[in-house]
Amino acid sequence: MTVEQQYLLLPGPTPVPASVLRAMNKPMINHRGPEFRELMAEVTDGVKKIYQTKNDLVIFPAAGTGAMEAAIVNFISPGDKVLAISIGVFGDRFAKIAAEFGADVQKLDFPWGQQADPDVVSNVISRDKEKRIKAVLVTHNETSTGVVNDIKAISESIGDHPAIIIVDAVSGLGAMELPTDEWGLDVVVSGSQKAFMLPPGLSFMSVSPRALETSKNCKNHKYYWDLESALKYLQKGQTPYTPALSLFFGLQEALRLLLEEGLDNVIKRHRYCRDLVRAGIKAMGLTPMADDAIASCSLTSVLAPEGIGANTIRRMLWERFEVVVAGGQQRLDDVIFRIGHLGFVRPLDLLASLAALEIVLYENGFPIKIGEGITKVQELFIKKEEA
Amino acid sequence: MTVEQQYLLLPGPTPVPASVLRAMNKPMINHRGPEFRELMAEVTDGVKKIYQTKNDLVIFPAAGTGAMEAAIVNFISPGDKVLAISIGVFGDRFAKIAAEFGADVQKLDFPWGQQADPDVVSNVISRDKEKRIKAVLVTHNETSTGVVNDIKAISESIGDHPAIIIVDAVSGLGAMELPTDEWGLDVVVSGSQKAFMLPPGLSFMSVSPRALETSKNCKNHKYYWDLESALKYLQKGQTPYTPALSLFFGLQEALRLLLEEGLDNVIKRHRYCRDLVRAGIKAMGLTPMADDAIASCSLTSVLAPEGIGANTIRRMLWERFEVVVAGGQQRLDDVIFRIGHLGFVRPLDLLASLAALEIVLYENGFPIKIGEGITKVQELFIKKEEA
Q1: Residue A358 · residue A373 · CB < 8 Å
Q2: Does B324 touch chain A (CB under 8 A)?
C-alpha cells in the first residue's frame, strides 16, 4: 500500500498538525477585504511573540531564502562592506546573496561542525577603525552541520560599532532561544516550515528602528522584497501583492497552538527531542557531528560509520520504515545524515525512528546490539518524568 | 500543546489514511444522479472483492451493530428458532438483538477467551431432527476477548441442515481470512471503521441466494434495514434513503488502497502486526488473553499484571504518550486492556507504543527490564526481512 504518512524527520519541511492542515483548507477570501485585515494583524502579532520583539515584522510569500535576500537588498547597498560569518552551507549562502547584490563581502569562516568564535568576530570588528563594515551576517542554526551559534555573544562582540546585525534564524527560531529585542538583533529572518509547523511558503523578517533607518538610504534594486512597500501595506492590513492565503490560515492556527503551549515550553520540547536523539545515537556507538555544548535543538547531524555510506542508511530507513532523514550537503554528502527534530515531531516517533535506525545499522553489519540504543532513549523518557 | 494526532490502537475506530480523509472532503453530489450511480457500482464491487463473494451486497449508513440488526430482521421471523454462538460481548449482543425481534434463541456459550468448539455446534445441530433451527449466529472476531472463531469449521458443522449461517465479521473482515463464498457463509456483516480504514458510519451485509429466499418469507418489521428495498434501489445505482456521501467518497479511496495492496497482503500485514504485538507483550512478561492458535489479527487482549489495574495502564499511556488502547468490557473492565492492530496501523507505531507500555509498567513497579520487550519486537523486524 502506497501511503503518505511518513516519519518525516527533516530539518524542514516538518510534519504539520491536522488542525493546521484543516485550517489551510478554507475557501479563499478577498485579500483586500476586512477579514484579511484582521487575520494579518493577528498573525503579525503572533509571529512577533515568537520573535520576542516589538520591532516591525513583515511576512513574505516565499521560502526562507527569499527573506534572506530581503535582508540583503533592503539594508545593504552595492559597495557596502559586509562581514559574513559562516560555519557551513547556509552561512555561505548568505555571503553569496550579499555578493550577488554588490556587497564587498569579508568572509569569516569557521570549520564546519564548530561554532563561530565571538572573540574572533570581536577582533575583526575592533580592527575596523573606519567603521566600513555596515552589517554582520550570521546564521543562528547552521542546518548543514547541526550547530547553533552563540548569537548573544556575537551580537555583544559588535559592541558600539555601528554595523547592524542580520541573523538568518530560518531553522532555529522557535526551536531555541532567540529573544530578538533583548539580544539587540537588528534584522532576523525565519521561515514557516520549521518550528512554525507549517508547510513551506512563508518567511518572516523583523526590522529594528535602526535597521529601518539604514533601509531608507539603501540603493539596491528591489520590488518583491521591498520593505517600505510591505510596511506601508501592513498599515492597511494588506500586502503589496497577493499573499499566500492558505498559509496565512494555517499560520493563524499554528500560532494558536504554539502560544497555547507557550514559547518556553516549545523551546523545552525541542531541547528534549534533541536530547532523546543524541542519547540514542551515542548509545548505538554513532558520533554526532556537533559537540554537546553547541548542539542544535533543530536537528542532529550524525557521522555515518566506517564502511556504511550515509545515503545507504537513509535509503534503507525510507524503503523499509518510511523514516525520512536528510543527507549531507556538498562535501558532507554520504558522510553524514541529518535527523530533524523540530516542529511538530513527536518524541515517540523519534524513538520509533531510532529503533529503525538500529535495525538498519545491524543489517549493515555494524557491531551493535539490537535494543541497546533504544533502551537508552526509553530511559530518558523515564528520567524526564522523575525530574 | 493539545494535538489531535494519537497512536490510535483501538479495535476501531482505526487511523484513517490522509488520502481517504481528503477524499471525504469533497463537495456533496446528487445521490439520485449519474455520478453517485457510478460510485455506488464501484464501491459495491470493491467491497465484494474484500468479501470474496459473488453474492448480493448492500451498504447501510450505520454502525456495524446496524448491519447486525439488518441480519436479524431480514431473515428471522418472530418465533423462529436461532442458535446463537457466543464467546464474548459481541456474541451476546447478536443473541440479544435476535431475542429483541422475537426469535426463540438457543444460546451456546463458550468461556470467554476461548473459541467456539465446532464439534459442540455439530452436536446441537445434529440433534435438531425437526430442523427447527432457522439460523446459526456466530461472531468471526470476538472484539471483547481478541479471539477469532474457526468460521470454516463452524460452517461445515452445520452440514446439510437447512439453517442459514449469519456471521458478524464487523471487526474481522479484511484482517483475517473469510472467503464468504468458499466457506458457504449466507449472511456476513462488516463495518467501515475496522480493516476498511474508514471512519465509522458505514456497514455492509452480503446475502447468499438461499438467504435471499429466506428473506422473502420473513415476517419481521423493518424499514431502514429492508433488504428488498436496498436491492431494488441498488439496481438503479441508488439507496432507499440518503446515503452517507462523504463516507462513500472515502470508501472509494480506501478500496483503491486495499485492492492495490491486494487482499492477501492486507491479511499478511495484519498477521505481522499481531505477531509484533504478541512478541512484545510476552517479552515484557505479560500474558495475552488468547492462546497463539486462536489469536485475533485485529486486536490483542492483555491481562493486566497483579496489582496494576488495566485502566491505570491505559490512563498513563494516554496522558504521557497519546497512546490509545481499549479497556476491558463488562466483567473484564480493569482486568484487561486491548491493543488494536487493524486498519491503517503502522508497525513502527506499534513498536513505539509497546516502548511506551514498557515504560508505564516499569513506573508502576512491575518487575521489568527496560528495553527487553522492545528488543524482541525489533528482532521481529529483522527476521521479517531475512525470511
Answers
A1: yes
A2: no
Q: Can you tell me the ipTM of this complex?
A: 0.86
B175 in Cβ contact with B167 (< 8 Å): no
Determine the angle formed by the axes of helices A372-386 and B372-386, rounding to 10 degrees. Answer: 150
If contacts are CB pairs under 8 Å, which of residues 343-362 in chain A contact chain B? 344, 346, 348-349, 351-353, 355-356, 358-359, 362
Find chain A residues with C-beta within 8 A of B387's C-beta.
none
Q: Which of A318, A103, A67, A41 is nearest to A192 (CA)?
A: A67
d(CA A228, CA B40): 57
A144-187: pLDDT as tens digits: 999 999 999 999 999 999 999 999 999 999 999 999 999 999 99
- CATH 3.90.1150.10 range(s) for chain B read 262-386
Name the helix (H) or strand (E) containing B105: strand B104-109
pLDDT digits (tens, 9 = 90+) for A301-353: 999 998 999 999 999 999 999 999 999 999 999 999 999 999 999 999 999 99
- Cβ–Cβ gap B359/A348 under 8 Å: no
C-beta neighbour count of B205 within 10 angstroms: 26
DSSP per-residue string spanning B5-16 = --EEESSSS---
- A217-234 pLDDT, tens digit each: 999 999 999 999 999 999
CA distance B291 to A228: 73
The CATH code that applies to domain B262-386 is 3.90.1150.10
Fold entry, domain A18-260: Aspartate Aminotransferase; domain 2 (3.40.640)
Q: Which CATH class is domain A7-12+263-386?
A: alpha beta
Interface contact flag, B349 A353, Cβ < 8 Å: no
Q: Extract the C-alpha cell encoding A148.
A: 547553533
Q: Tell me the nearest-neighbour CA distance from A259 into chain B, angstroms.
A: 9
CA of residue B238 relative to chain centroid, distance: 26
Q: Does A272 contact B at CB distance below 8 Å?
A: no
Residue with cell 555601528: A162
d(CA B309, CA B335): 7
